[in-house]
Please model this.
Amino acid sequence: ARIVKGTEVLKPNCALIDSEILRDQDKDAVLKFTQDWLNRHIQTVLEPLYRLQDQDIAEGAPKEVAQKIYEGLGILPREELQNLIGQMSEEGRNTLRTKKIRFGPIIVYLPELNKPAGVAMQALLLSLWEGKTLPAEKPAEGIVSFSIEGKDINPDYYRAIGYPVFGPRSIRVDMLDRVICAVYDGADKGKFKAQHQMAEWLGCNIADLYAVLEAMGHRKIYDPADEEKRDDVPEKPTDKADAKSEEVIELKEKEPEEKKQAKKPELATFILKSGKAKPAQEESASKKFKDQKFVWFCN
Model:
């Protein structure tokens, strides 16, 4: 049999391949067997997603949030759920936490679906649903992020399989969420500094890190590298008194390469994207923010 598009993204069908081996009376039994196997296989691989259909989730906002995340294949922008999240009681929030839903500042998702098998299954199901050619397009197994420069990709497709697109990169959602929380946890008075570990988490260079942060809505206001470029242009000595300065410059240039590489330059400062203030009812990744103009929470 082969897998074909069904009535829902998560419910593809099996179609028997013509074969002389099967007699007419066997076809129905074989089709039922393969369809049952396919249904069980999908539910096993995407088990965290199917938990959102459990009956213990309370009616109202919690049930609606769970259903929307289910229909989004385990990931949605938080802004699409914010009104419902605000309506939930603490009991409703706790129920959804037991389903391992991660309510990040920008994205709500199921971290357990980030495994290669989950990504591959989501890619297959979406490709079937959208009529794309198989095998399904997906990132290399285990990759943290990849450049989308020069590539014609569908951001909605990559977000649905756990690799949202921000700026020049498609980024695995758990690493993206780590950077987002580090940004908000490290912010002070509406500003934050980019950190080298953020680029390491994203598996990208500093230029791409800045582009990703700007794609999130943050604005770069100061970059020490700009000043260093100006300082790196030595003035031409005008007399003998300047000769000593020229020698100092030459000595700096001869500084051991290992020592140069060990020094990590200070990175740029950004103004934090302002968010809608709300009561401090949820814990952030490591603390609560007191500046209500820039309140975002990770829970």
Q: What stands out?
A: DSSP finds 13 helices and eleven strands in the chain. The chain has a mean pLDDT of 84.
